[in-house]
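re: the backbone from monday

yeah here it is again, tokenized this time
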């Protein structure tokens, strides 16, 4: 399963997301969001090298529980998960290379060689020691 172009019709629960085995990228945004629309070409380019990585688009907004559970504040936010655990995060990615780097880390299971998880916002990577954002 590769890049998804449509937002999920039914928002999955956090438990359903956490139960997914393997690599998963959850993209939070909205179909009318300019930043989200601009990121689609970047996502398409980056995902072309990772056709086995599952991608789920989730429409976010007021009252949407899944986005709140991941502390999403800006769109698009990409959460990179391996076996339900957050490995990396990108907020408003500005180039395909950033996405490819996070996909590569997802493939390896961790962004940092010391084994700590990381939150990536823009081009900065911040270790979180598994605590999330």
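seq for it, each position gets an aa:
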């Amino acid at each position: 399963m590769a890049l998804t172009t449509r937002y999920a019709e039914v928002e999955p629960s956090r438990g359903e997301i956490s139960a997914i085995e393997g690599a998963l990228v959850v993209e939070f945004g909205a179909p009318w969001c300019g930043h989200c629309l601009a990121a689609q070409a970047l996502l398409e380019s980056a995902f072309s090298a990772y056709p086995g990585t599952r991608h789920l688009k989730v429409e976010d907004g007021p009252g949407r529980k899944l986005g709140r559970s991941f502390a999403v504040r800006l769109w698009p936010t990409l959460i990179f998960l391996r076996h339900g655990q957050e490995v990396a995060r990108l907020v408003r990615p500005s180039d395909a290379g950033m996405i490819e780097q996070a996909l590569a880390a997802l493939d390896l299971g961790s962004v940092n060689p010391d084994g700590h998880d990381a939150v990536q916002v823009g081009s900065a990577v911040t270790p979180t020691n598994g605590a999330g954002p």
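DSSP finds four helices and six strands in the chain. Helices lie at 14-18, 34-47, 65-69, 96-108.
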